[in-house]
TrEMBL record:
It catalyses: alpha-D-glucose = beta-D-glucose; alpha-D-galactose = beta-D-galactose. The active site is at H196 (proton donor), E325 (proton acceptor). Its EC number is 5.1.3.3. NCBIfam families: PRK11055.1 (NF008277). This is Aldose 1-epimerase. It comes from Clytia hemisphaerica.
């Protein structure tokens, strides 16, 4: 069945159904300054995994899963109230139109020069000052998944073209969160979407840094960056830069000081292999696997987390969370050797991201 709700609806409903999904709960999460209501939609599968999303920013708000002792905790950083999401960007949000950075916010398309809003020093980051992470998305529910929709008008953050975007989240009985990203445009434009969840597999109750998490990234190349975190244009073999090499699993903290923190894009050439990364936390036994169709993935070690007060009144300091963001390469429009994320009228941008949760004793 299908549930459709107007974004101003005050309806809170609880559904139980089988065999597809154990529980679905919809509730009010807060009210925007505009008076519009933000909804929280929570799914629970038969294994006791709980996953919730917000229609503000099409945000992944929580992922509650057991550890090796059967104790459940939330492994996504975020906030107990809407105010936290309004004050602090990107926690679990959908990023668009363009994920990551565009150098000086400038690019050319079809002979026209564009100047985007620069919100990260001299560069454009994550769609600009009012990116898709700050929009209230329309939504509908199809049994065991929720689909968000957004219309981004021509000129939105100075991008060309009217774009219709959608994000679909699905929690499966195999303990996967499946994310489908899709967009169309009536004019040639840039589209590069991702989810920006911060993870900490130790959970919220422990609130430890992620430096002891064991990381494996299935990539042999990465993109070096300049002092403003714009790619230099080089695609570098990781065998020449072992500090950034995670092909053999190692803890995040092993080389992090020498690396200056991780905020780098890893490259994936094999289109027949969608495995991107695996992260394991020994103390809890929790494991997260990332799969995606996207050609790149940003590994960010929470270098700029600076004491946000989050869930359970936790203080999210530097390295208290990590993000693995599948995407097209940063600044690809200005880098001739990079795969472009240009989308033309009549074309469909369509990608997927999968988070697989498991426990190892």
């Amino acid at each position: 069945f299908t549930i459709k709700q107007n974004r101003k609806s005050y309806l809170s409903l609880y559904l139980q159904f089988s065999p597809i999904m154990k529980k679905l709960e919809i509730s009010n999460f807060g009210i925007l300054p505009s008076g519009e209501i933000v909804k929280k939609i929570e799914f629970e599968n038969k294994n006791g995994l709980k996953f919730s999303v917000l229609n503000y920013g099409a945000t992944a708000a929580s992922l509650i899963c057991p550890d090796k002792n059967g104790k459940s905790d939330d492994i996504i950083l975020g906030y107990n109230n809407l105010e936290g999401y309004l004050e602090n960007s990107y926690f679990g949000s959908t990023i668009g139109r363009f994920t990551n950075r565009i150098c000086k916010g400038k690019f050319s398309l079809d002979g026209t020069d564009y100047q985007l809003n620069c919100n990260n020093g001299s560069n454009h980051l994550h769609g600009g000052c009012q990116g898709w992470d700050k929009k209230l998305w329309d939504w509908k529910i199809e049994t065991d998944e929720v689909e968000f929709h957004l219309e981004s008008k021509d000129g939105d953050e100075c991008y060309p073209g009217n774009v219709n975007a959608s994000v679909c989240y699905k929690l499966t009985e195999d303990n996967e969160v499946q994310i489908r990203l899709k967009a169309t445009t009536d004019q040639t434009t840039l589209i590069n979407m991702t989810n920006h969840a911060f993870f900490n597999l130790s959970g919220q109750e422990k609130n430890t840094k992620v430096l002891d998490h064991e990381m494996l990234i299935n990539s042999s190349k990465y993109l070096p960056v300049d002092s403003t975190l714009i790619p230099t244009g080089e695609v570098k073999d990781l065998s020449k830069d072992p500090v950034f090499d995670f092909r053999t699993k190692k803890i995040i903290g092993q080389d992090i000081e020498e690396a200056g923190g991780y905020d780098h894009n890893y490259c994936f050439d094999d289109q027949n292999d969608d495995f991107r990364a695996r992260v394991f936390h020994e103390n809890s036994g929790r494991q997260l696997e990332i799969r995606s169709s996207q050609p790149g993935m940003q590994f960010y070690s929470g270098n700029f987390l600076n004491g946000h007060i989050g869930k359970l009144n936790n203080k999210y300091d530097k390295h208290c969370g990590f993000a693995l963001e599948p995407q097209f390469y940063p600044d690809n429009i200005n880098q001739p050797s990079f795969t472009s994320s240009i989308t033309k009228s009549g074309e469909t941008y369509e990608q997927y991201i999968i988070w697989k949760i498991s426990v190892k004793n």
